[in-house]
Amino acid sequence: MTDQADAVDVKAQVEAARARAPSWLARFRDSDILASFLSSKVTMLSGFITVVMIVGALFATWIAPTNPFDPASVNLIDSLFPPRWIEGGDPRFLLGTDNQGRDLWSAILYGMRVSLIIGICGVIIAATLGIGLGLLAGYAGGRIDAFIMRVADIQLTFPAILIALVIDGVVRALFKGLPREQTAFGVLVISIGLSFWVQYARTVRGSTLVEKNKDYVQAARLIGIPAPLIMLRHVLPNVIGPVLVILTINLALAIITEATLSFLGLGLPPTQPSLGTLIRIGNDFLFSGEWWIVAFPGVTLAVFVLAVNLLGDWLRDALNPKLR
Amino acid sequence: MSTLVEVRDLRRVFDVSKPWLERTLARESRMLLKAVDGVSFSIQRGETFALVGESGSGKSTVARMVVGLLQPTAGEVMIDGVSMTAAADAAARRRLRRRIQMIFQDPYASLDPRWRVGRIIAEPIRAFGLARGDAVTARTGELLRLVGLDPADAAKFPHEFSGGQRQRIAIARALAAESDFIVCDEPTSALDVSVQAQILNLMRDLQDRLGLTYLFISHNLAVVRHMATTIGVMYLGRVVEVAPARQLFAAPRHPYTRMLLDAVPDLALSGRPRTPVQGEIPNPISPPTGCTFHPRCGLANDRCRRENPVLRDGVACHAVEEGRDMAMPAAAVTA
Amino acid sequence: MTEPILSVRGLSVEFVTRRGTLRALDNISFDIARGEVLGVVGESGAGKSVTGSAVIGLIEPPGRIAGGEIRLAGQRIDNLGRDAMRHVRGKRIGMVFQDPLTSLNPLYRVGDQLVETILAHLPLSPSAARKRAIDLLAEVGIPAPDRRIDGYPHEFSGGMRQRVVLALALCAEPELVIADEPTTALDVSVQAQIIALIRRLCRERGTAVMLITHDMGVIAETADRVAVMYAGRIAEIGPVRDVVQDPLHPYAVGLMGSIPTLAGEAERLVQIPGSMPRLTAIPAGCAFNPRCPRVFSRCHVERPEPIARGAHQVACFLYDPASGLPDPRQRAGVSPEVGA
After folding, report:
1. How far is B164 from chain C (nearest CA, A)?
2. Which single residue of A164, A226, B69, C95 could bond B64 by disulfide (Cβ 3.0 to 4.6 Å)?
3. Any chain A CB within 8 A of the CB of B317?
């Protein structure tokens, strides 16, 4: 039935149609999500703040006047200067310095970067683990489902801090020789990953249970597509929506968790301070009058977390099909 | 005409009991749902066999077992001499799979909303290795044209189409692997009447052109009349009557078939005499004893309450066997 | 001639969305006489459910009534406040929805829901209300009503639940009942029972019924008159027998021809090419013109007003003497077109 020329003609038609079809960008511009984003000033402000902070953190090396992690550039004589606009301040240090003589503005930028990287890595681990287990539990059902869900339940009884302590202890025992600087990053990221995967797993499992029974999955089973491929190609794209919301809110939570762990001394060492470490250091000096060491990192953290949470709120409402 | 599909004593039981712990604490026994209870029929090559029934009749479950999406608890499905339930080697099964396809009821759930139409139709082509590269695009375009759509529609997403158009895409997908046996599970129930007419006409045309065999599941007797060569009527998991279409409508024998025909609204407003419908379909978990239809049947006697009638000469009814059915007014449909 | 119980004139309903304003209903007018059953039939998107919602005052934003009047026994009800409308609803207009599972509150006993509605609209004591509820349940065919009145909705089967919903709709003795697809979710055999029940009860009480459905068969069995809707407009309205057996509007002709029936030979079904237009893209002039086998130039330009032909009204220029066309009914062998 198919002529060679006819086949080429059909292909040309399809390609032409594909070229004419609105591109990803055009579809995005016209979408409901963008309209919903632009309709709320609060959301736009949160988005703006989040982007500015992330960009600032990523480009810290270029923006910051000094490198607070480099012991050579830090001078003890410069310690405990107040912010520039207060009497006694030094024009070199915008927000003042901490007890080691580090420029606070630079320390916040670098600290933000560290916090962000740990947060993002932790969330990636949590998401991968959670989505994978959730898909498996939902699709396989039966005993596998029951087992994974019980593990999840048990996992939830352990707070992040406890998990961090345990992992820290295990790592120290296993890698006796390595200094804190090298293991701290790994410990933090794994702790965060292990603490937060359950939320992803539960959400994905619920959505998978719904999608699994839909006819398009049955149609794929009918032609003999193996279960893992069905899960990956058909189910996953359709259950990923709510995960995006959890990711956003989780990021803020991960950064706070890292800050808490660092504050408690379980996180990064003082030579590579994250925001949490800075807050811990500053805490000691709060009552002796050097309020800026805790105030500025604290405010930065709070503003970032608030912005990301508001963004997550908007995303959840925007993606909710019932509200559209 | 040769037999393409043969179904023998097909059964399917679902365990709908509560989880073990709850059951033991509440001292409840297991609850088993006999969705399909011994169904046998055969389909000739090139014909359309319709399974008609209301909810709880088990017709959809039968469809899924025939196609291989569900494993039967007992019984056998043979397609072109090869058993679906006990295919020994993967190659025979694979070859068989390619020849069977299914069209589903809900056009909104049967196409992956995240895939483009072209990719959806190409999935069986690629899965069975029937073509590669450009040939796939060409074949997809050809299939779209075959079902009355534009080859350029391959670039669009399902949500850009109406229900009727989506069902056409589903038909195109079903034909992509060059199957010859298509199981249609209420393909037009979710569509508007005028769209239904288009799809039914299309299905008949394709059958004539490509020599397809259909197993058509429906609850709508009027639709079935337009499509089917042979009709099987199901009630609570059993086949109660099987007959060629013309015969079933001209002279229905089983009391349930008569009740179904009587219940169909009469568009011709002919004012034909009809017996009022009685009762409702019982709970399939605890069906009536003997013949499951006896509580609603005007001809039920003691034997009906005790003994389950066997399908004999196309009908499973004691009254018909014993010649008692002459007492009922004829519910035949006149042209 | 007694006044109709429901009179709708020039009703328009719009939905304001980001992409523009959708006209779900465009200037429709019809009456329902006391005790009459009017069927409103159409396919998805025709606007039949919106009509029902508009009459009973359940159009929520972004939808709104953009024009026209709705009169119940002579009184305007489309401009009533929320409280006044709530009073009308239930007492004077009863409603039966499609899905009995969601019409009844699963947490309350059936009897409680009935008694609550009765007490809200009629001056009875609680015990008298309960007795009335039991009587109603018996009337709608629920066996052992004095026991089942204390049952929960999930203990009833689908058909039984719909009977209860019918009882709920009728318990305050309304003058009009709006039934939106009352039998669509039910099995065929149960459907027949419910249709017969609706017909009988409303005849006995003299209650008018607005029966909204896509199923022409149900209309043929139950209704006295029928309105065929298309793209938010009424294409044809008239006595059931006339519209079903001898439709005038080309859409109605195509629709009747495409319904598979038990009678007649099993040949190809009539099909109307294309599909109903989306509400954002309704064609100019007559909404049916892109699909009409009898279209001519005037159809693209002007929107047809309903033209009377006896008890029948049809919105089609073919029947307008001013078009200068021969009367379609005069031609021999008027047959429906078979679409490609």
Report:
1. 9
2. B69
3. no
- Is the link from the previous residue into C62 a cis peptide, with omega within 30 of 0? yes
Q: Which two tokens stand for residue C140?
A: 């709608």
State whether ipTM is beyond 0.90. no
Gyration radius (Cα) of chain A, Å: 25
Residues B171 and B51 in one domain: yes
Strand partners, B235: B238
The predicted model gives C121-148 an average pLDDT of 90
B187 and B281 assigned to the same domain: no
Domain that holds residue B320: 252-335
Nearest alpha-carbon partner for C178 in C84, C94, C240, C86 = C94
Is the CB of B177 less than 8 angstroms away from the CB of A223? Answer: yes
Q: What mean pLDDT value characterizes chain C?
A: 86
Position C21 scores a pLDDT of 84
* Beta partners for residue B12, in sequence order: B36
Identify whether residues B180 and B266 lie together within a single domain.
no
CB neighbour list of residue A224: distance below 8 Å, 6 or more residues apart: B94, B97, B127
Residue of B nearest to A237 (CA): B114
Judgement on whether residues B234 and B324 belong to the same structural domain of the protein:
no
> What domain count does chain B have?
2
Angle at the Cα of A22 from the Cα atoms of A18 and A25, rounded to 5 degrees: 125
**Are A74 and A99 spatial neighbours (Cβ–Cβ below 8 Å)?**
no
> Of all residues in chain B, what percent carry a pLDDT higher than 70?
93
Q: Which of B250, B267, B301 is the last residue of a domain?
A: B250
Other Cβ atoms closer than 10 A to C65: 17
Nearest CA in chain B to A241: B114
B22 and B163 assigned to the same domain: yes
pLDDT band at A68 (very low <50, low <70, confident <90, very high): confident
Q: Which whole number is the average pLDDT over A113-142? A: 91
- B118 CB near a chain A CB, below 8 Å? yes
Which of chain A's residues have a Cβ under 8 Å away from the Cβ of B137?
Answer: 10-11, 14
Burial of B276 (0-12, 13-18, 19+ CB in 10 A): exposed
Q: Please, what is the angle between helix B163-176 and helix B134-146, to 10°?
A: 130
Identify the helix (H) or strand (E) that includes residue C65. Answer: strand C63-72
- Are residues B20 and B113 located together in one domain of the fold? yes
Give the SS3 label for residue B102: strand
pLDDT digits (tens, 9 = 90+) for C2-40: 789 999 999 999 998 877 788 899 999 999 999 999 999
What distance in Å separates the CA atoms of residue C19 and residue B304, rounded to the nearest whole number? 63
Residues B11 and B115 in one domain: yes
User: At residue B9, does pLDDT exceed 60?
Assistant: yes
Chain segment B124-151, per-residue pLDDT in tens? 999 988 888 889 999 999 999 999 999 9
pLDDT digits over B64-97, tens only? 999 989 989 999 898 888 888 776 666 777 788 8
Put simply, the answer to whether B139 touches A221 (Cβ < 8 Å) is no
When comparing pLDDT for A28 and A164, which is higher?
A164
Regarding beta strands C6-17 and B82-83, do their DSSP bridges make them parallel or antiparallel, or are they unpaired? unpaired
* Backbone angles phi and psi of B52, in degrees to 5: -115, 140
CA distance B300 to C28: 53
Q: Determine contact, residues C323/C298, Cβ cutoff 8 Å.
A: yes
Are A11 and B141 an interchain contact pair (Cβ–Cβ within 8 Å)?
yes
Closest residue, chain B, to C277 (C-alpha): B162
CATH of the domain at B165: 3.40.50.300
Q: Are strands C63-72 and C75-76 parallel, antiparallel or unpaired?
A: antiparallel
Contact B138/A214, CB-based, under 8 Å?
no
Query: pTM score > 0.80 for this model?
Result: yes
Residues B101 and B181 in one domain: yes
Give the pLDDT band (50/70/90) at residue B273: low
Domains of chain A listed by start with CATH number: 34-323 (1.10.3720.10)
From B224, B250, B276, give the residue that closes a domain.
Answer: B250
